[in-house]
Amino acid sequence: MALLDVIKYGHPTLRQMAEPYKPGEIDGGFVQDMIETMRTEDGVGLSAPQVNVSKRFIVVTDSENLYTLVNPEIIAHSESTITDTEGCLSIPGLQASVTRWEKVIVRAFDVDGEKKEISVRGLLSRVFQHEIDHLNGVLYLDRADISTLTWINGGEDHYTPTTLEEVQREYKKLYHAERRELFFETV
Ligand code: NI
């Protein structure tokens, strides 16, 4: 097993539409690496595009369950929504409030190719929506209430960005100093 590098906000792969897997195509070693990377990074979810693999695969976990889902899609959702704080391993140091559907039903294949439907609510519903968004090149900042942006790193140069432009300047400095082309916006 190996830890995978999680790419950061501004990297072009985060804005691509990920490709579906063909039946039997997903590699078991990659699945294990994704799980290990999510756990090491203390995440509750991780999508393949975040490790620079533009394919439709996510891992999601809570204290009781581990979901490894190939080609997941939301097939139904509640009318009701919940607004709560969200973050992302590809956008480290930031949090903001995002409104999500309270319940969703997700259809996907497991890594053995078995079709399944999963009904989730609350935090799991939020994480599924966040990770499936990644497969479509959508980031939680696109859906967030920007007035709630909070920089959680603190420390010496504690700094709270108030606009997306400030956030993007900071990420360019921190992670993409050498990169000429950046993709902060939805493509
Ligand atoms: Ni994320």
Structure description:
This protein has helices spanning 28-40, 122-135, 140-143, 164-175, and strands at 45-47, 57-61, 66-77, 81-86, 94-101, 103-109, 115-121, 144-151. With 187 residues, it is α+β, with helices and mostly antiparallel strands. 23% of the residues lie in helices and 30% in strands. It has one domain (12-175): Peptide deformylase (Peptide Deformylase, Alpha-Beta Complex), CATH 3.90.45. The radius of gyration is 16 Å and the shape is globular. The strands form 2 sheets. Strands 1-2-3-6-7 form a 5-stranded antiparallel sheet. A 3-stranded antiparallel sheet has the order 4-5-8. The structure holds nickel (II) ion (NI). Nickel (II) ion binds at residues 88-90, 130, 134. Nickel (II) ion (NI) binds at residues 88-90, 130, 134.
User: What hetero molecules are bound to the protein chains?
Assistant: nickel (II) ion
Unreliable stretches, pLDDT < 50, 5 or more residues? none
Strand content: 25-35%
Widest sheet: strand order? 1-2-3-6-7
Shape: globular
Distance between the termini: 33 Å
Count up the domains.
1
Name of the CATH architecture? Alpha-Beta Complex
H-E order? HEEEEEEEHHEH
Assign the structural class, choosing from mainly alpha, mainly beta, alpha/beta, alpha+beta, or little secondary structure. Answer: alpha+beta
| Tally of helical runs | 4
Mean pLDDT: 92
- For this structure, what is the CATH homologous superfamily? Peptide deformylase
Summarize the biggest pleated sheet. 5 strands, antiparallel
Radius of gyration, taken over Cα atoms and rounded to an integer in Å: 16 Å
What is the CATH class designation?
Answer: Alpha Beta
Helix amount: 10-25%
Number of strands: 8
- Write down the CATH topology: Peptide Deformylase
**Assembly status:** single chain
